[in-house]
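BUG: 3D viewer hangs when loading the predicted structure for this chain

Environment: internal workstation, default settings.
Expected: structure renders.
Actual: progress bar stalls at 90%.

Input used:
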Amino acid sequence: MSTEDNRESNHDSTAPVNGRFMEEKSEAKPRVITEIETSALIPHHRNQGIYGKEDVSDLVDLIKERGHIVNSLVVNQDNVIISGHRRWMAAKEIGYATVPCEVIEFDSEEDELEALIHYNASREKTFEAKVREGLVLEDVYSVKAEKRRMDNLKQNNTDMAKSSISEDSVEEEDIKGATRDVVAVKTGIPSGKTYERAKKVILEADRLREKGREDDAELLIYLLNNKSVSSTADLADETILESLPLKTKQELRNGKVSVRSVVPKSKDNNSKNKTKNEYDIVKNHIKVIATAAKELKNSGIVGNTNKQTQKIREDIEAIISNLQELLCDDAVNTQ
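Structure tokens produced before the viewer hung:
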């Protein structure tokens, strides 16, 4: 049973969504629960794409046993469901004319999507569903980051017009750290690296579906949900899948052979070589940037009091430091 509605059990629709956002909403208005016609409610267009088609027979039995829906649904001002899709489907199946709803006005579609994922945080989910949540969050963070960037540009232009440029014009980020790591935390995936590997599997499965190779797509999803993420990511290669006989694919599904055993060893070697090449490229970049920084310093530009020039110097030093931390390499001397 999904804990979204096992809840009909333990779901608390007053829980904060996206931190300050929901706190501000709850402070602005007290919670108001109203009955809305079941037929008037609209499922969110992204819900099924994330969580797939769902069986609600267990929830139907639970609601019938209790005689009513315990926790209200959350909908936006247009009656689009943000939280409670399973409760809504169960209510329709039972024949309820209305269901209890809390109406929240969201500022943007991105806020709605964050809320939708937040409200499903405690439910039981497949690995596929977690990764699809991550893909949505990546899009949300990208849109919000671009909006912040544009807002900052507008603010800086206004400040320049007033001849008073602020050194603190950049808004503090709500999302800190590498996006993949933040997404992993938000979706309950062990690490950003694991998220990236699983994401590769999902994107390849979607591509295979578009090409009409539904069986191969389903095999990848099955292995992702039930076997090793790392080895399934290695298998998510069109040429490898195409080369596997049908019997081997069936043996993968029933566990008679391991995923690792059917991935060509050259695949692993190519991956190691690629990593080594990337390492060398980044290391060379550090040397180039370090040389540029020295030239700036020797030319006396760094000593200039111009704030913009000073900021450039600080940015260069920060890049060098960050790249060195990435490589865990002290061999590149930038002093």
